[in-house]
Amino acid sequence: MSEGNDNVPGEPPEEFVPEEAPEELSDGNDIVPEGDSFSFSITAPEAGERIDKVLAVRIPGQSRSYLKKLIKEELIRIDGRPVKPSTCVSENETVSVVLPVRMLPDILPEDIPLDVLYEDEDVLVVNKPKGMVVHPAAGHYTGTLVNAVMYHCKGSLSGINGVLRPGIVHRIDKDTTGSIIVCKNDNAHQSIAGQLAEHTIVRRYRAIVLGNIREDTVTISQPIGRDPSDRKKMAVRPDGRQAVTHVRVLERFGNYTYIECRLETGRTHQIRVHLAWYRHPLLGDTVYGSSKKTPFATQGQCLHAQILGFIHPVSGTYIETEAPLPDYFNNILKKLRS
To answer: Per the confidence metrics, is the pTM higher than 0.85?
Structure first.
């Protein structure tokens, strides 16, 4: 479903990832719900740090500007006293935090054409185009897949993930194309979410990477967590969550390799992070790969969610869809083969 974002309720908001929502479902344990109040004690490694930097780590998923706004409104205090963003903390001090409930904009149906791969009264599988954000979030409240499916499904969508993500049980990045499943009712949502959690959904991606992968098959088993130096990125790190990506070489083109990736787990940006760690980043991925220009028109990472297979939540039959490669992908392959 996503190159690695199995998102269950409570996933990080879109701003966590540059311009897009993380792929597939997040475990939902890395953010604090809005409207919540809590406190924590400053640990020795945090001592001497600015409070705004500590909060950015302690409350991931919230922008630095939003946290500074809370500080200015005195909703964040140290040992009961108001602070400034530049205030440095000391070990064993108690930080109290109040996260107010923010007003959400109305999310409206929009008549946006959908490339439907499969549909019945319970589920919908669509081929998401490049450049489309999956669900509304800061900076993207219109033109999203959610706006499109709200119009297409006439309000018949699961409500488990709230008003911003009706029907959404997993995601793929803005510039990743391909298959994504939408659930039309809560029963379907719970079934698909359960299959995601059990890693039984078939997810096969096509990608073009930099460099020549010499092995015909590779299994990358490296834990993934938030990048400690850049909260908008993920990274391979020993304290991360287990992540497994199976890679199969399809064609080699000297300095490029055409591959299939099968996800065993679904972590945020899993394929992008794993391949960058393997020193074969995705073509066009300026976040995890090279910022240098390529001779190809990619508009972001060259990654396509081609195959999606799942057990139907009602009939129990196995359903598998295949999203054809987008034109830009085929054009790159054509150039590489010539």
So the answer is: no
